[in-house]
Amino acid sequence: MRLASRICTGAAVVLLLSPAAQAQLSGNVHGKVTDRDGKPVQGAIVRLENTGLHTADETKTNKNGTYAITGMYLGKYKATLIMGGQALMVKGDGGTGDEIVVGDNTDTAVNFDLKGASATLPAASPGGNAKGKGPDKKTVEEMKTAFNAGNAAMRVGNFEEAVKQYQIAAEKDPSQAMVLVNLGLAFSNLKKYDDAAAAYRKAIALRPEDADAHAQLSLALATAGKIDEATKEVQEVAKLDRTLAGQSYYNIGAILTNQRKPKDGLEMFKKSVEVDPKNALSYYELGLAYFGSPDTLAQSIAALEKYLELQPAGPEASGARQLLATAKAKAAAAKQ
């Protein structure tokens, strides 16, 4: 998604959309638990943990041995069957070959057959919460409702309402980093970059390894003119996700060039391709920057050729081909 056209070159800052921003609480999981004789197991706890977001939901099987959890965050999950306070079976843990993915408007089946469990089976627990901590079920549902409303407001561009709903969700459960990242995105769309940065920092405090949150913070800081802070944040991104870091450096470069600081922008585009040699847009920008001087025509040609190699049908492909042909003609004329 393009946000702001860049002067002279037509390039733009690229919005770093977090998976959280696109999430909808509309995925469902259902299943059945059967004992070794194939009979339904009542009262068994099924716990589902989103492995990327570290959120969890759990429920119990009914008299038919079935269960269902609706309104799940999208993403990959680990499912644990718990009986008598003991975890008996785990699915989707990355080592069993039974990956669990919850998608938008999907109903995913996760069944447990106790034939594959340990020799001694405890009785199903009649009640209680296996986690024993965190918000109660009512609060969790209220948080989800507010989060879902915030996503709906974001999709139609009602960012004030999105902020309101995400703040409600964050108050209900302050431990949800994903809610805070989305709150930051809503503030950024309102051009309230200091508020956005504060939300991103809270998310990072909860999940320091979240490369996306670091990248979003960098973008908010750069847009607010805090380039040194933004660059420092990209260094954190690079430790976690080099591709995302390449895009972050590109964004800072585009912002600097929009501010008529082409030399500073050039340095950011160079850093972009250093951390991510496949960042095509940065090569295009380098081609443009080097084109202006006869001494750097060879570098311009190399950068434009690299862009076309990576994105032969990309958004700047037509302009890159024209510029490349001109650069080669100038270089040939200079040799004569």
The overall pLDDT, averaged over residues, is 84
Largest sheet: 5 strands, antiparallel
The number of distinct β-strands equals 11
CATH topology tier name of the largest domain: Serine Threonine Protein Phosphatase 5, Tetratricopeptide repeat
User: How much helicity do the residues have?
Assistant: 40-55%
What's the CATH class label of the largest domain? Mainly Alpha
Question: What would you say the CATH architecture of the largest domain is?
Answer: Alpha Horseshoe
Write the layout of secondary structure elements.
Blueprint: E1 2-5, E2 12-14, H1 19-22, E3 27-34, E4 45-50, E5 56-60, E6 66-72, E7 75-83, E8 86-91, E9 100-102, E10 107-109, E11 112-113, H2 137-155, H3 159-172, H4 177-189, H5 193-206, H6 211-223, H7 227-240, H8 242-258, H9 262-275, H10 280-291, H11 297-310, H12 317-335
Parallel strand pairs: 3-10, 3-11
Antiparallel strand pairs: 1-2, 3-6, 4-5, 4-7, 7-8, 7-9
Helix pairs in contact: 2-3, 3-4, 4-5, 4-6, 5-6, 6-7, 6-8, 7-8, 8-9, 9-10, 10-11, 10-12, 11-12
Protein described:
There is one protein chain. With 336 residues, the chain is an alpha+beta fold. The chain has two domains: 2-21 and 141-335, Serine Threonine Protein Phosphatase 5, Tetratricopeptide repeat (Alpha Horseshoe); 24-127, Immunoglobulins (Immunoglobulin-like), CATH 2.60.40. Helix content is 50%, strand content 17%. Strands 4, 5, 7, 8 and 9 form a five-stranded antiparallel β-sheet that branches. Helix 3 (159-172) runs antiparallel to helix 4 (177-189).
